[in-house]
Design a protein that fits this description.
Strand order of the largest sheet: 1-2
Number of helices: 11
Helix content: 40-55%
Largest sheet: 2 strands, antiparallel
Bound molecules: zinc ion
Number of strands: 2
Strand content: under 5%
């Protein structure tokens, strides 16, 4: 086949019989390994070049095939560990990327990550993964968040996630006093005046109002069972016979 003829085979196929014959005749023939010189040459020409697939796209059909083939596969790296050196190199590569491009994940990737739909399974895996992080990593993560503020939208989401029955401190009806206070406090608007003495200031001049249970310390989620009041009025209500209570009674 001359060079001019290089495209001769394009789109053409051997017959199955021919393929079989070729296979038989080539069997046992060994390919010589590349010499060191040859390998160096290949390496030199490829250096600095982007990945050969860059800019090319897989057809939808190919993507589908790959996806089918990978279904049910556990991730290659699952339960495998990378060497310390490999990990350091990966970290460095990420840092370099951050320095050169200003980001680690491209804007497109970030958009995809933001829009992905989380299944329950994904969430569970993520929470297991987070729990397994080393103390050091968790410390680093929290340190990296110092000085950053979640967006208004994120905070709203966080609030929803942590309110009501999904709250971290939700313990059903055995919830502690504090949890009930927080729960009711969020739902019972704080008035301007103390609901016990109906003044803005108590006898000590304090204006701070706290939520008090007026249901014999039987903590419920019923806002009617709570009152906003001064610390002192709260004490007076809770311990009417105590010294504080007596002093206040005058
Ligand atoms: Zn009061």
């Amino acid at each position: 086949m001359s060079k001019n003829n290089a495209r001769y085979w394009l789109g053409k196929h051997f017959s199955d019989e021919h393929k079989k014959n070729l296979s038989i005749s080539l069997k046992g023939r060994k390919k010589l390994p590349f010499t060191e010189q040859h390998k160096n040459n290949i390496s030199r020409t490829l250096k600095g070049k982007p990945n050969g697939r860059l800019g090319t796209h897989l057809s939808e059909k190919t993507k589908e095939k790959i996806s089918e083939a990978l279904k049910g596969h556990k991730g290659y790296w699952l339960e495998k560990t990378r060497s310390k050196e490999a990990k350091i190199n990966m970290s460095l590569a990420r840092l370099r990327r951050k320095e050169e491009l200003g980001y680690i994940n491209s804007p497109e990737t970030r958009k995809k990550m933001k829009n992905r739909i989380w299944t329950e399974e994904m969430r569970e895996n993520m929470s297991i993964a987070k729990k397994n992080l080393s103390k050091e990593t968790r410390l680093k993560m929290s340190l990296s968040r110092i000085g950053t503020h979640p967006s208004e939208e994120t905070r709203k989401k966080m609030g929803l996630k942590h309110s009501g029955e999904k709250a971290w401190n939700w313990k059903g009806d055995k919830a502690g006093k504090v949890a009930f206070h927080i729960w009711v406090g969020k739902r019972k608007p704080k008035p301007k005046l103390c609901e016990f003495c109906e003044n803005e200031k108590d006898y000590l001049g304090h204006t701070k109002l706290v939520l008090s249970n007026i249901n014999n310390h039987i903590y419920t989620r019923n806002p009617e069972h709570y009152k906003w009041g001064h610390y002192s009025c709260h004490s007076k209500f809770d311990f009417p016979d105590s010294l504080i209570g007596k002093n206040l009674k005058k």
